[in-house]
Amino acid sequence: MTTHTGVTPSSPGPRKSFIGDKEGYAEDEIEQQKLQMKSTTRASSGPCFLFCHRVGQSLNAVFGRAENPLPENPTRCQRFKNALMCPPQGLLGLYITSVLMFALLFVALVSILGSAALPGSNIFALWVVFTACITGGYIIQFLKLPPLLGMLIVGIMLRNVPYINVAKDVESFWAATVRNTALTVILIRAGLGLDPVALRKLSFAVIRLAFCPCLAEALVATVASHFFLGQPWIWGLMLGFVIAAVSPAVVVPCLLHLKDNGYGIDKGIPTLVIAAASIDDVLAITGFGVVLGIAFSEGNIVWSIFKGPLEALLGIVLGALFGVLLWYIPPRKQNNSIFLRGFLLYAIGLAGVLGSPRFEMPGTGPLLCLTVAFVAAFGWRKKKELKVLDFISNSTAVLWLIFQPLLFGLIGAEVEMDELNMKTIGYGIATLCVGLLFRTLVAYLAVCGTDLLRKEKLFVALAWLPKATVQAAIGSVALSTAREKKHPELEAYGLTILEVAVLVILITAPIGSALVMLTGPRLLKKTDPSTMSSENLKAIKSEGNDEMLERNTTLQESTKM
Q: Where are the residues of the annotated region Disordered (predicted)?
């Protein structure tokens, strides 16, 4: 008697009726895939398909990264060959990405602005400066030098080398606006990075370091320029204040890089120099404005003398008020409150830096920008709103990557070799060297009352050398004012100030930044951030400051995370 199972042995149905385990299903799936591959191969086995398939196999064998893995101990030649493999990675991938980004940015600008973004226009010149300075900054890093040096050199070349001098097409209004916007970014970054604990501990040292070297260099340069360059005393003092200002745009990025790597944070050296640098600039700009007003005085001299200090005081007061406002506005529970606080912080900073000259109070904006960032960050730390601080700090770092090449490229583009006089160059360098010598000595003495070691004091003195931003901003003001007043004799004095300011940028910006980056790891102690937080906790606890203790405990926990 035959038993019917419902499926005959010759039935093409699934093997589930014969084999009920998982292996049967797996074998069926493999066989079906093989049949599909064979049918597909027969359908597409034309000459074109076979040719492309063989070419692809050949290219994979030569350029495929998976087919050509690196050995355990590769040579330089093998590493170079592997870098060219596909898909692109490492430097090759970075180059391809950069080229695509710059090309697509240019295409987007042309698509939006049309002929206003073509060669010969202001937008095209800014695009070239941005692209070329990023490239120059990247290349010079292979020489172990800071990227801003390469950006500065490229900016000078784009202004003075024939056939590529596209920087001359950048309008002065746009150049000043971009430079001031970049200055806003770096001042906010500096304000966010100030350590209140170290600042309170070094408050008197900050005042000494900000005032003493600046005033000493200004006075020495006044005397030197009077005898070397033949400047009248009042114009010599004006020149002294021009060259006496340190550049936060050069110093702060270098110090923040050292701070991020743990150098000098155990004694608050980055905080000391950053805080003093901003005050130093305000002092130099204030002194320059006072002397400029006296030199061209046609009104109340008393108001010209007291205007500068009042501008600085107004900047501090307004910055503190806006900073406290950002503790509460917008409310923490509001949607996108973190983004809105960052937006308001930058809006206030830009309004201060760009708007204060409109009200003839240029000394107010930079100090307002620095103060609002510092006070706002202080409140966010105290209220344990570290997410706000982290978001704005990260956003600031990204913005700095964009504005850094524009800032130093446009500063370099201010240098016109045709306007340099050889006699002025020689005596100008002598004036600069004498001033820097006294500045370095006074800066070293200014920090002698602290607990810094000798080599750390030497680093602070060297960090006080770079100059660029203030010189580029105010170096031509005296000349422009003299031309407006139509005084030929005063124009000659103003041109001398401009030429010396150019020399200051060319000499001190690259040398000073290189000294800071190269001597920092050798002269400063490297400290782990978590260790630094523990040391601060002990110091604060001994002072009985419970409020600071709670805030730094939060910072320590966030560091561990």
A: 1-20, 542-561
What is d(CA 558, CA 552) in angstroms, rounded to the nearest whole number?
A: 10
Residue type, position 428, single letter: G
Backbone angles phi, psi at 233, to 5 degrees: -60, -45
Reduce the DSSP state of residue 447 to 3 states and report it: coil
- Global confidence as pTM: 0.67
Question: 3-state class of 499 per DSSP?
Answer: helix
Contact indicator for 155, 412 with CB cutoff of 8 Å: yes
Secondary structure, 3-state, 347-408: HHHHHHHHHHHHHCCCCHHHHHHHHHHHHHHHHHHHCCCHHHHHHHHHHHHHHHHHHHHHHH
CA end-to-end distance (rounded Å), the chain: 77
Contact, 245 vs 281, CB < 8 A? yes
Check if the beta carbon of residue 499 is closer than 8 Å to that of residue 421. Answer: yes
pLDDT digits (tens, 9 = 90+) for 171-227: 878 887 888 888 888 788 878 877 676 667 667 888 889 889 999 999 999 999 999
Q: Alpha-carbon distance 268 to 230, whole Å?
A: 42
What is the C-alpha separation between 552 and 363, in angstroms, rounded?
33
Per-residue model confidence (pLDDT) at position 347: 93
Enter the tokens of residue 390: 């982290």
Residue 456: both structure tokens together: 């750390």
Whether 386 contacts 554, CB under 8 Å? yes
pLDDT of residue 280: 85
Rg (CA), the chain: 32
Q: Residue 23: beta bridge partners?
A: none
CA 64 centroid distance within chain: 38
- Bridge partners for 263 per DSSP: 526
| Residue position matching structure tokens 């063989």 | 54
Question: If you ran DSSP here, which 8-state letter would residue 297 be given?
Answer: -
The 3-class SS string of 224-288 reads: HHHHHCCCCHHHHHHHHHHHHCCCHHHHHHHHHHHHHCCECCCCCHHHHHHHHHHHHHHHHHHHH
Residue with tokens 């019917």: 4
Question: Average pLDDT of 256-280?
Answer: 83
Does the 172-527 domain belong in CATH 1.20.1530.20? yes
Question: Nearest Cα to 319, choosing from 362, 282, 366, 381?
Answer: 366
Query: What is 79-119 written as a DSSP string?
Result: HHHHHTSBS--HHHHHHHHHHHHHHHHHHHHHHHHGGGGST
- Any idea where the domains of the chain sit in the sequence? 172-527
For residue 421, how far is the Cα from the chain centroid? 33
How many Å apart are CA 67 and CA 70, to the nearest integer? 10
User: d(Cα 157, Cα 258) in Å, to the nearest integer?
Assistant: 29
Q: How far is Cα 412 from Cα 165, in angstroms, rounded to an integer? A: 12
Which tokens sit at 348?
């206030």
Nearest-CA neighbor of 467 among 430, 432, 423?
432
| DSSP assigned state of 3 | P
Distance CA 272, CA 252 (A): 11
Distance separating alpha carbons of residues 277 and 271, to the nearest angstrom: 10
